[in-house]
């Protein structure tokens, strides 16, 4: 298991091989065994296998080919609809349309998603997280018919990797000592920032990104092209509106 985690690679291309119902149920069961807040399990998992619904989801994920090519597209959602309904049937008054409850449910959904990712890889499957889920949450809510108090948080495509994907290199990661702090957080002097990011900056593909985007540094590719302040602020406003539309008073 440890070696599997260390060897993780994002898989974006899949074979046509279907995922058996038994395999799918095993990885979903593993997802639902994840740690969660107070045993409430305030998340839901929407498993999309139908080709037509995957086509409807694709625009929300910027039409990335893996959304329609993967055998399974699995959306993890914050879900207080189910818990609130249970409370109503048991003469209990729920009060979970607030930021703390929302934050807890987001954490729970993400923990479940990572359990599924690890379980899928243990079955020989490949996975890819889609960060686009929160970019276009309103569209996904409409496609998946999510009721009030249900909001999509992350999506994973799942399938058997192509031979080329199996052989590709792992994505780069920062060194362990650049991320882990011991006992207390120690801020980074300039020299440490230079050291921590040197490997990433010197990778040929990242140098190519800088040239292609006509930038001076890799950091500028992130701030000016890939994840701009303007996009982040716009999406933040939209996402906040979506949470409110779905019943969260934040």
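Q: What amino acid sequence fits the structure above?
A:
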């Amino acid at each position: 298991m440890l070696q599997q985690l260390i060897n993780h690679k994002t898989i974006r291309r899949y074979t046509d091989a279907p995922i058996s119902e038994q395999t799918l149920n095993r990885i979903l069961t593993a997802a639902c065994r994840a740690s969660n807040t107070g045993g409430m399990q305030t998340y839901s998992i929407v498993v999309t296998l139908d080709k037509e619904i995957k086509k409807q989801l694709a625009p929300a994920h910027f039409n990335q080919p893996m959304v329609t090519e993967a055998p399974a597209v699995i959306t993890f959602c914050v879900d207080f609809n189910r818990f609130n309904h249970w409370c109503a049937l048991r003469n209990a008054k729920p009060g979970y349309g607030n930021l703390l409850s929302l934050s807890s449910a987001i954490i729970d959904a993400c923990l479940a998603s990572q359990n599924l990712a690890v379980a899928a890889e243990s079955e020989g499957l490949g996975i890819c997280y889609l960060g686009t889920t929160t970019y276009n949450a309103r569209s996904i809510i409409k496609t998946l018919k999510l009721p009030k108090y249900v909001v999509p948080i992350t999506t994973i495509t799942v399938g058997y990797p192509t031979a080329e994907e199996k052989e590709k290199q792992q994505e780069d990661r920062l060194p362990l000592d650049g991320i882990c702090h011991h006992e207390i957080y120690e801020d980074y002097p300039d020299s440490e920032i230079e050291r921590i990011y040197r490997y990433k900056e010197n990778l040929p593909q990242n140098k190519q990104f800088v040239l292609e985007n006509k930038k001076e540094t890799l950091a500028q590719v992130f701030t000016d092209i890939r994840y701009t302040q303007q996009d982040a602020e716009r999406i933040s406003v939209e996402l906040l509106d979506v949470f409110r539309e779905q019943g969260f008073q934040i």
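Q: And what stands out in the fold?
A: The mean pLDDT is 97.
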